[in-house]
DNA sequence: CTGAAAGCGCTTACAG
DNA sequence: CTGAAAGCGCTTACAG
């Protein structure tokens, strides 16, 4: 019943002894590309297998220039998009042989200490997946001296990578389907006015509308991407202007809020009376209860690109940060009246 | 424009030199409880501050019996409960000074390799937050020799901690409110029949019903906790038996599926014609669109307890694993017809 | 290709 | 309380 912690720690020395070679030989066998003869490699591998040996990643990291640990810095999961993006990211990191270490910045706590604690482990790079992250936290990442890859967020410096969805394209895709299907009076519901993503999505929407000779009837920024914000925005917006027949929301959760508000309080039918279009394509969008037509953020493509950049930064030398926009995709379901 | 990686690595030696003390003294200053005179501590601290010194956690881990890294082993985020639990867990780990390292087991990939890779970093403990985790992965954790804390899942051994919601209590809470508010024909919608949680919730529900002299009208296991599963279950269940007026679902997402199926296809009003009660209390439950009455899983209490157990396992000696059930809480909203 | 030696940055007994 | 020394488990030049 009682449990005794009993981890046998096999080391290079043990394997070397059993294989009858030097510790260097063992080390080389586990270092891809290092020179070892087929014979010794064989003997080392079989000894290692017999002993159940695996190199201690901590010790290895101490002598190498990298640790294979990637810090993911984020705020709270206050929006279904975040866990979704996060899941794709960790999955890709694993495939690339990286171990994700999590840094969740608590809005009630110290904005920088958790970041320093991750840095103590000599993480190779900081992936900042941060909508709701305090500016101080972001600043700490940038000043850390460690490569930073920002997700979907703008930064005032040009020394970090930024990867984000092509928000202008997204806005244009929303505008196009709405106009092509005969909508006349359109509105945009954004998140935080200050955030790049909300700004760009709105700009892309308006610009495409302009190009088709249509003006925007109304625009509102909610301060967040949350369901509640969307719910309230819909109420106030549609009370003001009842002829709006199409709304583009800067996130799916905003769109869900809009849809529910419309159903509960306004007595309008979606999409018959009003079309709603979201952005993200979180799994919930395909639930029959919503059937949300939306602009998909390509989380897997984003994650893949992040992995590429991690590899890029991992080789020493003069480096050039990039700002990369990943194309979005229109997903047609039932919340937009067609034809 | 070009970015040069330029991390200055200050070491104990640098600080020792500046402070005019030995490296041991520096080390002791950063080791809580170690003997250092106020004077040297002062000098060390100020030197450290001037240099921006922080102990290298990797090197430190190499000489100590612990690393402060906690592995979180999980499957996919296929259910809103998981990110919610995960968020609470990581938050508490940070508060306890632990760094979470993520191990997501890909169903398409190797079920054990990612776990070994985490073990290579000498994680202190494995927190297995695993509904959908393959048995092989779970076995690998248990055999690792590292303390294991299982979340909401049963195990065939008695050498690991298990912490989970009090599922019997949850079932009883659901039964009680349903019966007290005059429901007559009740059904249970579970997840996987084989899983402890789904089984226990159903048992608790039936047992409480029994005690009140009521039988269960119908029971179905969906194989998962997903929205889709709930949607389909509702369709087939209610087609079979139209007089059911109360359904207890083993998860909120199951309940959302049931609600939407009922609204879309059965023309029943919730809660007027049919009451639905969920389990988890994920944030979405409080969205006006659902207003789900549910049994809350105390994620923060669970996370707190996990932290306690991590501390417990961290001190050496004869150890005793525990199975801890955390009380659940009824959250009343609008999906159950009252009185 | 191979091994002995030095070193990564820290902590822990060990004498004082 | 303090410092010199040894050691954690590995890798990397350095000779051969």
Automatic annotation (TrEMBL), chains A, B:
HTH lacI-type domain span: 10-64
Claim: Transport is one of the keywords in the record: no
PROSITE patterns per the UniProt record, alphabetical: HTH_LACI_2 (PS50932)
Keyword line: DNA-binding, Transcription, Transcription regulation
Record-level Gene Ontology MF annotations: DNA binding
Keyword set includes DNA-binding: yes
SMART domains: HTH_LACI
CDD domains recorded: HTH_LacI, PBP1_LacI-like
Pfam families according to UniProt: LacI, Peripla_BP_1
UniProt xrefs under PANTHER family: HTH-TYPE TRANSCRIPTIONAL REGULATOR GALS, LACI-RELATED TRANSCRIPTIONAL REPRESSOR
Name of this protein: LacI family DNA-binding transcriptional regulator
């Amino acid at each position: 019943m009682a449990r005794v912690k009993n981890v046998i720690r096999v080391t290079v020395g043990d394997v070397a002894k059993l294989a009858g070679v030097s510790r260097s030989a063992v080390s080389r066998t586990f270092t891809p590309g290092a020179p070892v003869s087929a014979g010794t490699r064989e003997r080392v591998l079989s000894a290692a297998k017999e002993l159940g040996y695996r190199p201690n990643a901590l010790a290895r990291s101490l002598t190498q220039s990298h640790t294979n640990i990637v810090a993911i810095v984020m705020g709270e999961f206050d929006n279904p998009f975040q866990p979704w993006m996060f899941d794709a990211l960790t999955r890709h990191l694993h495939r690339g042989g990286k171990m994700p270490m999590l840094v969740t910045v608590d809005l009630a706590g110290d904005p920088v200490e958790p970041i320093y604690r991750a840095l103590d482990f000599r993480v190779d790079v900081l992936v900042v997946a941060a909508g709701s992250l305090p500016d101080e936290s972001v600043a700490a990442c940038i000043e850390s001296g460690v490569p930073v890859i920002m997700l979907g967020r703008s930064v005032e410096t040009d020394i970090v990578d930024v990867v984000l969805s092509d928000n202008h394209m997204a806005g244009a895709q929303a505008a196009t389907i709405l106009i092509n299907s005969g909508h006349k009076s359109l509105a945009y519901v954004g998140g935080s006015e200050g955030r790049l993503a909300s700004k760009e999505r709105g700009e892309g929407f308006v610009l495409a509308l302009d190009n088709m000779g249509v003006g925007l009837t109304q625009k509102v920024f909610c301060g967040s991407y949350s369901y509640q914000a969307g719910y309230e925005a819909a109420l106030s917006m549609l009370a003001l202007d009842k002829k709006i027949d199409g709304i583009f929301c800067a996130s799916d959760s905003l769109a869900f809020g809009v849809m529910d508000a419309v159903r509960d309080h306004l007595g309008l039918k979606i999409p018959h009376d009003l079309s709603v279009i979201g952005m993200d394509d979180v799994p919930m969008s395909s639930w029959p209860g919503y059937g949300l037509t939306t602009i998909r953020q390509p989380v897997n493509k984003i994650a893949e690109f992040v992995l590429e950049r991690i590899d890029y930064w991992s080789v020493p030398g003069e480096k050039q940060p990039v700002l990369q926009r990943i194309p979005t995709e229109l997903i047609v379901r039932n919340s937009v009246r067609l034809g």
